[in-house]
């Protein structure tokens, strides 16, 4: 998978929409699962997953191929969920 994944990443960075779609399909379950575990709400988890992939798309050029792609992507998801939890907490204060 890593060799295929590296090809998809390079193709997506070059603007290949089908390669980007393959990355989304490959990582949709772990991104959603992380978001659901953090947020405890399926609708919020779906929104967080969608936002994660939007951020992946806009920041793909910043990805360092020396690091594991899944770690990079799940960090984006985790940071977004933490931000959502902070906003949620601020709304209750």
Protein topology:
Layout: H1 2-13, H2 17-39, H3 42-59, H4 69-92
Helix pairs in contact: 1-2, 2-3, 2-4, 3-4
Descriptive key words:
93 residues; single chain; mainly alpha
* DSSP strand content: under 5%
Give the total of beta strands. 0
Structural class: mainly alpha
Helix content: over 70%
Approximate shape: elongated
Rg is 14 Å
List the secondary-structure elements in sequence, H or E: HHHH
Distance between the termini: 46 Å
Biggest beta sheet attributes: none
Number of helices: 4
Kindly state the mean pLDDT as a whole number? 95
Note poorly predicted spans.
Answer: none
What does this structure look like?
The N and C termini lie far apart (46 Å). The chain has 93 residues and is mainly α. α1 packs across α2. It is built from 4 helices and no strands.
Entry summary:
Helix content is 83%, strand content 0%.
